[in-house]
Amino acid sequence: MGKFDSICTSYFGDPDRFADLFNFALFNGRQMVKASDLAEADSVLTEKPRRNRKSFISGSRIVDTAKLWKEQTHLVLLFSEFQNYIDYKMVIRCMRAESIAYFKQLDALQLSHENHKDLVSGDDFLSGMRLDDKLSPIVLLVVNFSDSAWYAPKSLYEILEDCDSNLKKYISDYHINLLDYHDHTDFNGFVTDVKKIFEIYSMKNDRIKLEELTRKDSSYNDLNEDTADFIEEIANIRIPRNEYGGKRNMCKAIEDMKKDARAEGIAEGRAEGRAEGRAEGRAEGISESIISFLSDYSKVDKPLLDKIYAQKDPDTLNRWLKLAARSGSIEAFVNQM
């Protein structure tokens, strides 16, 4: 697992934030998923091969975060997958993850029946389950944290070659559930500090908007430690602590960004000034050499002097210098310049 995945898994592993993420993405902020109804679920494959069935690799991670949700009368598996780049094969990855998770449920169900030795009929025994056995439904949510809005396929049909409509109706489609902050301008559907994560991330490249946001909302003066750490790592914004300790101050971070921008601007201005000064000095030196050659022919009048000194293009000045050295007269120089 990479650093980005590890940070997201740790932060959104918190049940309140995990529930907040799904409530915003799936239910428009309605509090359908409650943190108290969530339990840890296995996001890593640990099943060992049994009999002659081919098994998936033990220990490979299939999703970033997994929770078991007690939704009224039944259980639902909620998976989240965090992306910091646009993955063109995301549809296939999600299909694979869900398929593996369903097979894991089937393996567990079959093992339970084997232990109880309660499959006696032919079809039950061969299937490894009863007809009335049910699996927990799975909902997988992809969260886009990349700088770009999601432009990769969101359904299986989009990744398949075009085919005849008579054939297509027999091909099952598959859609991913996607939370993309680029699709939202209002994050008030969130009820935890996840709201701040998405607000700041959506404006991380616009210091003016960030300044307006933090000025309007005083709670940005007191970010909790893990939310501030998450923003620092994911959005690359350094968030200092308040002057007297305690929580972290996003407003101070904006002030520091402004100071850094001013310092950078001053440094760039100085560098540009030095470069421009050197260029102007070289241009003036070439102009004087041109005039020196022309003065050998006769007096150079003021309009021609002004024209030569006004020229700053080095290629033009070098051409004029060669011309002045061989033209033989000011009149010939003027006619060819």
What does this protein look like?
A hairpin with a 2-residue loop joins strand 2 and strand 3. Helix 1 packs antiparallel against helix 9. About 4% of the residues have low confidence. The chain has a five-stranded mixed sheet with strand order 1-2-3-4-5, sandwiched between helices. Helix content is 50%, strand content 9%. It has two domains: 183 residues, no CATH class; 78 residues, no CATH class. It starts with a helix and ends with a helix. With 337 residues, the protein is α/β, with parallel strands linked by helices.
Order of helices and strands: HHEEEHHEHHEHHHHHHH
Query: How many separate helices?
Result: 13
The shape, in one word, is: elongated
Largest sheet: 5 strands, mixed
**Rg to the nearest angstrom?**
34 Å
Strand order of the largest sheet: 1-2-3-4-5
In round numbers, the mean pLDDT is 83
